[in-house]
Amino acid sequence: MYVRRSAAVLAAAVVIGAAAPAIAADSSPSASPKPTHPAGLYGTTDPTYDGVWRQSLALLAQDTVGVKPAPKAVDWLVGQQCASGAFAPYRADAAADCDAKTLVDTNNTAAAVQALVALGGHDAAVSKAVTWLKSVQNKDGGWGYMPGGASDTNSTSVVIGALAAVGEKPEGIRKDGRSAYDALGKLALPCKGDGAGAFAFQPDKKGKLLANADATAAGVLGSLGKGLVVGPGKQSAASCSDAGDPTPQQTAANGAAHLTAALAKDGHLTSALPGAEDQPDYGNTADAVVALAAFSGADAAAKPLRWLERNSAKWAEQSGPAAYAQLILAAHATGTDPRDFGGADLVEQLNATGPAPQAATKATNEEKTKDDSPFGVWWYVGIFLVVGIGIGFLLSGRKKGPQA
To answer: What angle do CA 39, 121, 360 make, to 5 degrees?
Structure first.
């Protein structure tokens, strides 16, 4: 997901793209000691800003493709939870109590909820996390990255995914009479003018909404009531309309239409990081693939998916587990085999970044899921709201400034 980041995270984002959650500009310490790398954590880079996020995505990816994660990998994630139910990006000393200096946030908490629900057997941890998320809902119905922070599209959408994962109806979770869908509606641009149909991350300092591609991908999923793992939607054209009072479904359609236009020329999104505006944004392109497939079906995401298959290998190798998980998520959403993604076995590559999983389950995805679409069971082979985070997602990641 695109979001405002601290200088340290902005530097990291040059490498990891959209593989980290949304992080507010003032949310990280000015200086942090380099942590000792935990044995159960996926990836080898400093987990200070994305440990829980990347672990959640990795475990979700493994579960979705029928791989049983290593117990110590799951235990590491559960052990990161505070007594309040919230999660921070990373706690070096998980045995110590969380206090006012522990920077818990909605993105990591919501991603952890989705992973733990998928794995099963963690009802107490999930219940505490969801209770905490509800307690920090804003009066406009949405969520910000930090408790009390202004609502943003990426954070609101990843929380919607967590609520949906536990069987809650997001429209029924209200603060001062407003739901998450009310908040998303306020962050959606009209169909006329610059950024037609897109979502903004947040209003700018003047209250203006600026189109943000990764926030749009997150907003489409949020408006559909979807989480980080989705299957392909029904074949339906995405057209932008401002007629009447837009429903969440229409707001999702508007966002999908914006993404379709943004991807039409090159098949990929471009980076919004300062100095990198001419470079492809692999993670946010993967987010867009998921959003388009969720709304309009696999065909709508075919062009950016093919681009990822041809071009994402080096990025994923450099970026690590969250990147592999995002690509698996995109493969799953479109019915593409993640074990033959542009010739690469994404599942094997993900598994190699952390503790060896127990084993692949015997049940295939074909046996576990059925779909009445004409595209067949491959839609269910493989595994973000993350981010953007860092929203970007969304919150991929989910992060930076405005992007058309």
So the answer is: 65
